[in-house]
Hints:
Number of strands: 7
Mean pLDDT: 80
Strand order of the largest sheet: 3-7-6
Oligomer: single chain
Structural class: alpha+beta
Helix content: 25-40%
Largest sheet: 3 strands, mixed
Low-confidence stretches: 1-20
Radius of gyration: 15 Å
Distance between the termini: 34 Å
Number of helices: 6
Amino acid sequence: xxxxxxxxxxxxxxxxxxxxxxxxxxxxxxxxxxxxxxxxxxxxxxxxxxxxxxxxxxxxxxxxxxxxxxxxxxxxxxxxxxxxxxxxxxxxxxxxxxxxxxxxxxxxxxxxxxxxxxxxxxxxxxxxxxxxxxxxxxxxxxxxxxxx
Length: 148
């Protein structure tokens, strides 16, 4: 397990912070229970995914999926933390360790396109993401389909 603030990859293109999943889950739960206003709505996160531009240059090399998700969270300025669901881990226990990379072209894509590319490369194409109140959840395609 990485310690808080430890670099996730060599020469990361962005500042990346690593926190334990349990800490993030507990923090999000407390925020949702207390109704802290900083939790982004589903619509706000959808807009953020569509309006945030990602430079693909630093993301074309193979990296672990968990690193890609940490980078995406950083790109989204921590307004939309990304979590892997227990259901997805039950189907694919090594999901966070799988290798992913963005295509070299085009040079810039939306955050939604980048996340879609990353998610499409893991779990044999059986993973998907769902925008929830305050966060983005990586889950199975079947669960994502039900959520829509």
